[in-house]
Design goal:
Radius of gyration: 45 Å
Low-confidence stretches: 207-211, 957-962
Distance between the termini: 108 Å
Organism: Pontibacterium sinense
CATH class of the largest domain: Alpha Beta
Domain EAL: 696-951
Shape: extended
Mean pLDDT: 82
Domain GGDEF: 552-685
CATH topology of the largest domain: TIM Barrel
Number of helices: 29
Strand order of the largest sheet: 25-26-28-29-30-31-32-33
Number of strands: 33
Transmembrane segments: 12-31
CATH architecture of the largest domain: Alpha-Beta Barrel
Largest sheet: 8 strands, mixed, barrel
Keywords: Membrane, Transmembrane, Transmembrane helix
């Protein structure tokens, strides 16, 4: 018997110890590396955040000056002074505003220029702006006024000033430019307040600075113009520049062992004149470095302790299994020598353990093998008897199958090599009309069939069966039954031996009549649309694939009915089916015989034009677009306009695979829909179009599913009358339900709906559901009616049928128009303002109120306020969020409120989230407020008592006088 030279126990211990050491070292190394990487990423995020915050503060500074530049020329006394080119009067008109703006906004410069660039008048701080800078600003203002183009730039000499040069047009069509300069020192304070990081502004050394100046940085040739926490950080910055030849990103350790990170912020997007300022941030990172070092040291300590404990546990775990394995290795050779009794001594199970492992299983298995080997002969004998029994059962089964075939619904016969039928089963005799006895005379095999359906030389094949391998012959034919009908039968002929020992032919025929008829019907259904009779998607794709395989040229047209779902829902499915049949007939009548016309499903059709060029495709689309532009009579006897959008793609120019070509034509069709109803478009293979269309297609399917499966939800947000803390009305907000727990906001799908032409269906759905909700609410709360503000998109407002749709829905649900507020955004009228204005005037005459949403952003124009029949003007939330902390925003809101009041309109403030903002709004004269402080959007109407708004702060005399 072989003896082990080196125990597997010590091999395992040695190997696993090396593995544990490698794992421990790797984990500690990976842990340390991960911490250092995370520290670097944290530093990069901090630096990026600082750059972004500085850029944001500069943009905010610029935007505030732009809003002020847009507002000041429209003030009454300023506008009249500009009109009269009266410099002294303009100086007097600006002076009251100058004192307020210089104090609150830190303005340095405020001047106005006429259209030729001549200075009309203004004010500036003479001690903060030099003569050279004044001349440079005037030159830039003249160019901006002449070019009618805004300019934004920064100038740093003795002070750092941010200038905005904005052309303007007063209400009396007087053109000019306004220049506003603002000291940027407040950016330093805001930056330190937002990030808790000190910010310094350094400018190149000027003639007025000396080497003894405390703000002088001689190594960098820079001068510290501004620095947050100057008393503590000036010395740090001095020390850093003493050790660095240039101002760049670095980490500095002071004599007190304090670490600082200096970062030079990027201001590439800001135009400057004169000196280029440097924005430098200082951050104390001592605590961060200490925490990193402590964490690394703890990781190393834990790794070493873990390795030691793992070694001890390893030795304890491996000791007992190796002893058990030694017993098994001594027992297995005994089994090979049939020494089963001696082997049992080693394999006899010891004390049972609660938890068994592989070695326990191995030991028990070896014991079972020992016992099974002793009983092997008996087991073999038992298996032999069982096998014999199974063979007997199989023989009986084969005999049963033979009898079953004799009575099965098959034509089973035997015939000679010459085709003379010898025997036929009963079912076969009944089929041919000869139900006599088995020995009654039978016709020959060929006379049973229609001659033309029998294959050629079938008799020769039967006679040659013995030479075939295998000796079988199968064919199909039509058999004449006893009723004179035809049956499709498949025959299988094989060579057998008769009872007399002579060769005979066994023929088995299966009736396939019903299956063939069903296959013919299914074949037509598989390739045609049952409603229109056109080819279906499957058949069309086969035609397209064959055409593409041949490599010939052609065009693919994609046709989609406009507003088909609206017609189907309002007029009924019968009218919708008639529309589809009408489209199919028109397409077949005006296409060539070689063209393939198919219906893909729903209201989508395609046409395949072989050998068509781009010119031909455009001509066909133009012709079909004109033919499909018609009118339909609805169930209520009203006449509705009907049209189709067409998209085309060329092959192989726009795709060599059928899926690519279909996608290209589909995207071209949706591009046509974006142009309006009844349009056509030939595919343009630009990357941007493909990416946008693919995303739009996904959202379009979600929108259509939401419309068809009623997955849209209405939410209601209250709007507060701030004078008495009562609810004025509620705004209707739209959400899409996506699964049981997800609600999609409108910002995700409304832009897609506007691009793909589905926004009109959404508008109609929201308006109809809102009126349906109002009708139910009025019935339940008749003594306390409410009003709803419904957002409507530009295409719907500009539609010539929108007013009729609105009044029809009011009549259907019994809603008074004065309970509805149509809310539109200020950019909604830029495409067709006159059509929208006509529609709004009709609604306003009926009592419906109109609200202009998001005023103050985008294409703001006060001329809209004078032309449109508005009741409400909603200020954009960007002016409200920080209103209680921003004097400049308060000035803008107050001026806007007074101007809107002059047009007999009232203002609504959005994003009111704190009582401080509400108090300021009351003081500034704002009439209505909307936001989370008042109430969040809810799927149900919440009353003032439920919202608890009666307890909101009311304005005091002190707050109003402030």
């Amino acid at each position: 018997m072989l003896q082990a030279q080196f125990s597997i126990r010590w091999k395992a211990v040695l190997f696993l110890s090396m593995v544990l050491i490698a794992i421990s070292v790797s984990m500690v190394t990976l842990y340390t590396h991960t911490l250092l990487q995370e520290a670097d990423r944290t530093t990069q995020r901090s630096v990026l955040q600082q750059d972004q915050v500085l850029a944001s503060l500069l943009r905010e500074l610029r935007d505030q000056q732009i809003q002020l530049a847009l507002l000041l020329p429209n003030l009454a006394n300023v506008s009249e002074s500009i009109l009269g080119h009266n410099s002294e009067r303009l100086q007097s008109a600006l002076h009251p505003h100058w004192l307020n703006l210089a104090l609150n906004l830190n303005l340095n410069y405020l001047y106005m220029f006429d259209e030729q660039g001549s200075q009309l008048g203004g004010l500036h701080h003479q001690d903060q702006i030099g003569a050279l800078e004044l001349e440079q600003v005037r030159d830039i203002a003249r160019m901006a006024a002449e070019d009618v183009a805004p300019r934004y730039f920064m100038s740093c000499t003795t002070q750092c000033t941010y200038y905005v040069v904005e052309p303007f047009i007063t209400s009396r069509e007087v053109r000019g430019a306004i220049v506003i300069g603002r000291n940027i020192s407040e950016i330093v304070v805001s930056f330190q307040h937002l990030l808790d990081v000190d910010l310094g502004v350094l400018i190149p050394v000027s003639d007025i600075t000396t080497s003894t100046d405390a703000r002088m940085m001689p190594n960098w040739e820079l001068h510290t113009w501004a620095l947050s926490n100057f008393e503590t950080q000036a010395d740090v910055l001095k020390a850093i520049q003493a050790n660095l030849p240039a101002a760049e990103d670095s980490v500095f350790q002071s004599d007190e062992n304090i670490h600082y990170r200096m970062h030079v912020l990027q201001t590439d997007g800001v135009e400057t004149i004169n000196a280029q300022p440097r924005f430098i941030s200082l951050q104390n990172i001592t605590e961060n470095r200490r925490l990193l070092e402590n964490t690394i040291n703890k990781g190393i300590t834990v790794g070493v302790l873990g390795w030691v404990l793992a070694e001890l546990l390893l030795f304890m775990l491996i000791l007992k299994p190796t002893r058990q394995l030694a017993r098994i290795t001594r027992a297995l050779p005994l089994l090979a020598g049939s020494e089963f009794g001696q082997a049992r001594k080693y394999l006899s199970p010891r004390n049972r353990r609660w938890f068994t492992d592989e070695l326990d299983v191995l030991e028990r298995t070896a014991l079972q093998v020992c016992e099974e080997l002793e009983a092997l002969n008996q087991t073999v004998a038992d298996n032999t008897r069982e096998l014999h029994t199974q063979m007997t059962e199989q023989t009986r089964a084969r005999q049963f199958v033979s009898r079953l075939l004799d009575t099965a619904p098959l034509i089973i016969l035997t015939q000679s090599r010459d085709g003379e039928i010898e025997l036929m089963n009963r079912w076969g005799r009944e089929v041919i009309g000869n139900p006599g006895e088995m020995d009654s005379p039978l016709p020959d095999f060929q006379s049973l069939h229609v001659p033309d359906t029998m294959p050629e030389a079938w008799l020769d094949r039967l006679q040659d069966l013995d030479t075939m391998d295998p000796p079988r012959y199968q064919h199909e034919a039509q058999l004449k039954d006893c009723d004179g009908g035809l049956r499709y039968v498949t025959w299988l002929h094989s060579l057998v031996e008769s009872e007399a020992g002579k060769p005979s032919i066994l023929s088995v025929g299966m009736d396939l009549t019903k299956r063939v008829e069903a296959e013919n019907k299914l074949s037509w259904l598989a390739t045609h649309d049952t409603l229109t009779g056109l080819q279906n998607r499957h058949s069309f794709q086969k035609h397209l694939s064959r055409l593409l395989e041949r490599g010939s040229r052609g065009a693919l047209l994609f046709i989609d009915a406009d507003r088909f779902k609206y017609i189907n829902d309002t007029a009924g499915h019968n009218v919708g089916d008639s529309v589809l049949i009408y489209i199919a007939q028109l397409l077949e009548q005006h296409t060539r015989d070689s063209d393939v016309v198919a219906r893909l499903g729903g209201d989508e059709f395609v046409i395949l034009l072989p050998r068509a060029s781009a010119t031909t495709a455009r001509a066909v689309m133009a012709k079909l677009s004109t033919l499909l532009d018609t009118h339909l009579r609805m169930s209520d006897r009203s006449i509705q306009h009907f049209s189709c959008s067409l998209g085309g793609a060329l092959y192989p120019d726009h795709g060599t695979r059928d899926e690519d070509l279909l996608a290209a034509a589909d995207m071209a069709m949706y591009t046509a829909k974006q142009q309006g109803q009844g349009k056509w478009h030939l595919y343009d293979a630009s990357r941007a179009m493909i990416d946008r269309m693919q995303a739009d297609l996904t959202w379009q399917e979600k929108i259509r599913l939401a419309l068809s499966d009623d997955l849209f939800r209405l939410y209601f947000q209250p709007i507060l009358d701030v004078t008495d803390n009562s609810i004025s009305h509620y705004e209707v907000l739209l959400r899409m339900q996506n699964g049981p727990n997800e609600v999609i906001p409108p910002g995700d799908f409304i832009p897609v709906a506007e691009r793909t032409g589905l926004i009109g269906q959404i508008d109609t759905w929201v308006l109809a559901e809102s009126m349906k909700f109002l009708a139910a609410y009025n019935e339940e709360h008749g003594d306390s009616p409410i009003s709803l503000a419904v957002n409507i998109s530009a295409p719907s407002i500009q539609s010539p049928t929108f007013d009729r749709t609105f009044f029809r829905l009011c009549d259907r649900h019994g809603i008074s128009p004065d309970q509805i507020i149509i809310e539109i955004t200020e950019t909604a009228f830029l495409s067709d303002f006159q059509s929208a204005l006509l529609t709004l005037e009709k609604l306003a005459v009926s009592g419906c109120r109109i609200a202009l949403d998001d005023f103050g952003v985008g294409f703001s124009s006060f001329s809209y306020l004078k032309q449109m029949p508005l009741s409400y003007v909603k200020m954009d939330g960007s002016y409200v969020r920080e209103l209680h902390r921003s004097p400049q925003e308060q000035i803008f809101v107050k001026c806007l409120t007074e101007m809107v009041s002059g047009f007999n309109m009232t203002t609504i403030a959005e994003f009111v989230e704190t009582e401080e903002i509400l108090v300021v709004l009351k003081r500034l004269g704002v009439k209505y407020a909307q936001g989370y402080l008042i109430g969040k959007p809810s799927p149900v109407i919440e009353t003032a008592d439920a919202l608890g708004i009666k307890n909101l702060a009311m304005p005091t005399e002190e707050s109003c006088e402030a």
